[in-house]
Amino acid sequence: ILQPAVSVGNVGQLATDLVISTLDMTKVGYFYTDCLVPMVGNNPYATAEENSMELSINAEVYSLPSKKLVVLQIRSPFVKNKYRPFCQTLLSWVKSSKCARVVLLSSSHAYHRDDEQLLGTPLRYLLTPDLEKAVGGLMQELNWKEMEKVAAYPGINDTEKVLHIPGGGITKLLFTESCLKGVQMAVLLKFCSEGDNIPDAFALVNYLNEWLQLIKSEVNTSSQWKTPSSWRLLFGNGLPPALF
């Protein structure tokens, strides 16, 4: 199961849009929950006038059996104090569906990085202990950087380290709960700032593709991903500045 966190810049949601649109995934259902703000709109992946008026809601499920992939797309923010109930409902669904693993696409405020996090790539990953045993070696081969823990009390006690994902929404809670419940979960995230976050979305989906090889590519570039029609309504022509 691939899904976004509702996080800074909506980067996870935009990256998920690219996956659904590029792989031409089929909508197979809805994820009903009272934890998300209700919303309804037109089909964000419309390809013709005939399907443009199909309705979409705040949490929908897409499937691609050939790749054994299910995507849960979330399109609205969380209701206050509803993070934990949502995580519990989601993980219960994951277990009852006998899902092998969960991949969460997220983001975190760039300005909150400490000195160590400023070095190198702005992309990071996290693995629950159960998934670490399965794919930890591959992450090392890919030369990926694990999300660093930071000082719990900077300047006072720098030895006590904690996981801190500011702007990450449900990311930390969902990851922690997955660790406790034995769910195989990977978090892929990018440090970013609010603004035009299309380039961040392309960077994150390319990062995902390095691991899962959802589309075949010798070199990860933005042009290989199909932008959904809805992006044109929000971002002009739906392309990052480099491709204008």
From TrEMBL:
InterPro entries to which the protein is assigned, alphabetical: Proteasome_assmbl_chaperone_2, Proteasome_assmbl_chp_2_euk, PSMG2_sf
GO biological process: proteasome assembly
Compartment(s) where it occurs, according to its Swiss-Prot or TrEMBL record: Nucleus
Name of the protein in question: Proteasome assembly chaperone 2
Gene3D superfamilies: PAC-like subunit
Native organism: Oceanodroma tethys (Wedge-rumped storm-petrel)
Principal cellular location given in the protein's record: nucleus
Similarity annotation: Belongs to the PSMG2 family.
